[in-house]
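INTERNAL AUDIT FORM
Audit reference: QA-55
Scope: verify that the stored structure record matches its stored sequence.
Auditor: D.O.
Record contents follow.
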Amino acid sequence: MTGQEIVERTWEATELFGKCGKFGGSVTIEIIRQGLQGEGIRTSARDVFVDGVPIEIDLIIPRGCAKPTLGDLLYDPMEVAVALEIKKSGCYGRQSLNSIRHGFKQLAAKGVRCAYVTLEERKSYRYRATRKTVGAPCFTLHWHQPENEDFKATNDWEKLIAFLRRAVRS
């Protein structure tokens, strides 16, 4: 799957269901999960945890030796190659960015690498996620250009795949 296909599949799925933020977030994570698996990248289930860190993680890229416990919900920090925070439409405001950054700091304190992934984001938005604002690599699959309602695809899906493959090997 390409980044464009992931975005289109997510849009189609959310249009079928209607305006429901929780569904949009869940389907975004699930379609990205399927896309990663299609690239041969092993993933966790959605909404999992790292031992000693009291935050829910959208998706984990486990190391090859990972054996999660409690119904595949809990990972030892040493078993995690990357923890992913995934958004359908980016972040809204400083508080959201601070929350992500705080969670990433807690994970980093346990030796867990993190990354932020969004399907779409406004490039001009003052509170968007960047390496500086969240403290981790950020991948945006589409830039939303509100002045003409167009979307511009990026090559961040390919960059994300390369980043995750390097992380799993290290």
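Auditor finding: record pair retrieved intact. The mean pLDDT is 88.
Action required: none
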